[in-house]
């Protein structure tokens, strides 16, 4: 079965409420391919490796979290950017990308999906009363030591996280996938025992240590694999088309 590309894009836009979210890149259809869609390939970043994998999988649409055309980047279509776009256009593959809308969504969002992977019950946003806050706060059913929770993260994500071990057991957790380490101050204000993000900055260590909480950096790529999979699954069910998630390993 095939559906119109415009129908797929319209539904993704509606479901993610993408038009209402200010972002650092255009959300939605970034590269237009063939007008009919039978198969979606999803992945975290529209790298050349993922584009090539989409070609091999005979995808009609490549659905990603990290697409192209970021604010402040060189707009010239040269080098790496030219090769990626040339491959998509040569094979008539559309590129559909959602950044912050896929972080924020209450069902398929990266942060909600990561909570499900880690057994965290979502309580609300890191900033109370601000539903546009990307990060979330939640609780564990059973208190764990920082090392026990780090082991849970390692098992769920398939990689060893960076742990800054703080004081006491972990009952309340704050988190923001990807490059969300800057939200540690909001997490501290929310009274969490541990804050988790994808990346870490030099000052993150000091913030955690001096405020007596634990911190985990679990990997930008690793923490953002689940939202795009969930969105791809939703669209596949909605329109009875095929969806294949392809994970191109990234240690960062």
TrEMBL record:
Gene3D superfamilies for the chain: NIF3 (NGG1p interacting factor 3)-like (3.40.1390.30)
What domain of life does the native source organism fall in? Bacteria
Annotated InterPro entries: DUF34/NIF3, DUF34/NIF3_sf
Keyword check for Metal-binding, yes or no.
Answer: yes
Q: Pfam families in the record, alphabetically? A: DUF34_NIF3
Entry annotated with the keyword Ligase: no
Q: Which UniProt keywords apply?
A: Metal-binding
Q: Which family does the similarity line name?
A: Belongs to the GTP cyclohydrolase I type 2/NIF3 family.
Q: What is this protein called?
A: Nif3-like dinuclear metal center hexameric protein
User: What organism does the record attribute this protein to?
Assistant: Pseudomonas zhanjiangensis
């Amino acid at each position: 079965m095939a559906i119109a590309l415009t129908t797929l894009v319209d539904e993704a836009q509606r479901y993610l409420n993408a038009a209402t979210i200010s972002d650092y890149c255009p959300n939605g259809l970034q590269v237009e391919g063939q007008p009919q869609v039978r198969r979606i390939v999803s992945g975290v970043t529209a790298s050349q490796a993922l584009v090539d994998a989409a070609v091999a999988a005979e995808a009609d649409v490549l659905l990603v979290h990290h697409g192209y055309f970021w604010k402040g980047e060189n707009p010239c279509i040269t080098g790496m950017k030219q090769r990626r776009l040339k491959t998509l256009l040569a094979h008539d593959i559309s590129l559909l990308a959602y950044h912050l809308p896929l972080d924020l969504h209450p069902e398929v969002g990266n942060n909600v999906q990561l909570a499900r992977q880690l057994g965290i019950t979502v309580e609300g946003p890191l900033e109370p009363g601000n539903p546009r806050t990307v990060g979330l706060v939640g609780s564990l059913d059973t208190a764990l030591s920082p090392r026990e929770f780090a082991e849970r993260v390692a098992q769920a994500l398939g990689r060893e996280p960076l742990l800054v071990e703080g004081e006491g057991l972990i009952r309340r957790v704050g988190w923001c996938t990807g490059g969300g380490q800057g939200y540690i101050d909001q997490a501290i204000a929310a009274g969490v025992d541990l804050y988790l993000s994808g990346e870490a900055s030099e000052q993150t260590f000091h913030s955690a240590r001096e405020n007596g909480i634990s911190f985990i950096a679990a990997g930008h790529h690793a923490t953002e694999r689940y939202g795009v999979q969930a969105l791809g699954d939703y669209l596949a069910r909605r329109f009875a088309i095929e969806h294949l998630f392809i994970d191109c390993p990234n240690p960062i």
